[in-house]
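This part of the workshop introduces the protein records we will be handling. A record pairs a protein's sequence with a compact description of its fold. Backbone structure tokens are a discrete shorthand for how the chain folds in space. The question running through the whole workshop is how a given chain folds. The record below serves as our worked example for the rest of this section.
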Amino acid sequence: MSAGPGRVALVTGGGGGIGTAVALRLADEGAAVAVVDRDAAAETVAARIRATGGHATSFKCDLADEYDVADMVEDVTHTLGNITDVCCVAGSIQRGTVTDLSFDSWHNTLADNVDSVFLVCRAVIPYMERAGQGRIVTVASGWGLRAGEKAAAYCTAKAGVVMLTQAIALDHGPAGVRINCVAPGDTRTPMLSQEARQLGQQETEFLAEAADRPLGRIGNPADVAAAVAFLASPDADFITGAVLTVDGGGTI
């Protein structure tokens, strides 16, 4: 899969986990990558890309702040050029039932997972429409398609990402903007370890339970990055509004 000339990819949550894998994959395909995160981890990943001959710049951003997001998109465009690809990977999880969760935890989970996608897409789509084309990939979850226990806010947020993706596909497809969604299952990232701690489980026990699916293992960030790269490639030019599960059969 060739990146093609002038490809600029903005990756949110690029400082760790799936976001890092996506940033590395797109850089390997020749894209100039804007690695976006809320802390210095973004620069660590950008430096890693540059060290192997790739082109990457880090951008610090609070993705739940509309003004910060708008400024970040403008900065990326000024620094790297017209954004051709957006990968909305950033997110967080707070495990709990509706009676366990504080309102702040509920609100923060929706802000990190849904508001961030809305704000980034709202800021970048006008640029894409002026260019006559653009590719966006959002990252939801298998739990955005089927509910899981003690994850009320997260399931709601990720279902929102799925519906937002499809609404954007309807509204902006005529202007040349494609948007699709990847729905991972349990993936070996720091967030998965965080879930075990939130539930008070031993991590080894938690990971063993998570691997109980048809393919018999949890995912790796590279598994998800491969799906993102496909949906952002010319091979997927007639695909929009789709949801691709990458979960080893966990939602069957």
